[in-house]
Specification:
Elements lengths: L9 H16 L9 E5 L4 E5 L13 E5 L17 H10 L4 E5 L2 H10 L6 E6 L14 E7 L5 H14 L6 E4 L3 E6 L2 H21 L14 E5 L1
Parallel strand pairs: 5-9, 6-7
Antiparallel strand pairs: 1-2, 1-4, 2-3, 4-8, 5-6, 7-8
Helix pairs in contact: 2-4, 3-5
Length: 228
């Protein structure tokens, strides 16, 4: 862990490591893939370190960063996850206290099917009972954004920030084309529960044929619908 007080956040670090192992065991964070963070205060967040095996992560392999920018609080041997800026985009725009990004297979498959390499698309999901698990204002439908997987991660973060700023009461989740899924909540447990519900929703869409193929490129319509 970086910072002048290396033991100040051991409890949160251990919690991040524990959730990381859970998600690794489910096959959602293979190898060093994926990242988790918790917001410690208005100004600081703690995120898993880059390049660390998620099934073996310890509570010391986390990095303190500024919650608004992702800049590391203090230099150290560990580096914050490469996707820290996406977490920070969520923290700036929402009341989230925890963010989880994984490569859950069904959600990633849906992101691959629906997504576009150069522009955001929207996956509309309606009527599925599991939508209630996302904590939506209207639990009968959700408009899930699917962002391009730009090689430059801050560009993805900028897309996410712009979308969240322009979207009242957005669902606490997003997909990235060919990449994975991110969810958030008041704590890691809620973010994980929402992730589980979204992964199950994506599984149902694929199993029931409720997911349409990508729509043709169209200047007026970047939305696909998925209904049960």
């Amino acid at each position: 862990m970086t910072g002048a007080e290396p033991r100040a956040n051991d409890g949160q670090g251990a919690e991040l490591a524990g959730f990381s192992r859970q998600l690794y065991e489910r096959g959602w964070m293979p190898g060093t893939a994926g990242n988790l963070s918790v917001r410690l205060s208005d100004t600081t967040a703690l995120i898993t370190a880059s390049g660390r095996a998620k099934g073996e992560l310890t509570g010391r392999e986390v990095v303190a960063v500024r919650a608004d920018s992702g800049v590391e609080v203090a230099p150290g041997p560990l580096r914050a996850s490469a996707e820290t800026t996406i977490h920070c985009a969520v923290y700036r725009a929402t009341e989230a206290r925890a963010v989880i990004h994984v490569h859950a297979p069904y959600a990633t498959a849906v992101a691959t099917r629906v997504g576009h390499p150069a522009r955001r698309r929207t996956l509309r999901v309606e009527r599925l009972e599991l939508l209630k698990g996302l904590g939506l204002a209207d639990p009968t439908s959700a408009a899930l954004p699917v962002f391009p997987n730009w090689p430059d991660v801050p560009r993805i973060a900028q897309d996410v920030a712009s979308h969240l700023a322009a979207t009242p009461d957005p669902p606490p989740a997003l997909l990235i084309t060919d990449h994975g899924v991110t969810t958030w909540g008041r704590d890691l447990a809620q973010a994980r529960d929402r992730l589980e519900c979204l992964e199950a929703i994506c599984q149902l869409l694929l199993l029931t044929g409720g997911l349409p193929p990508n729509t043709p490129d169209d200047a007026h319509d970047d939305t696909t619908d998925a209904e049960r």
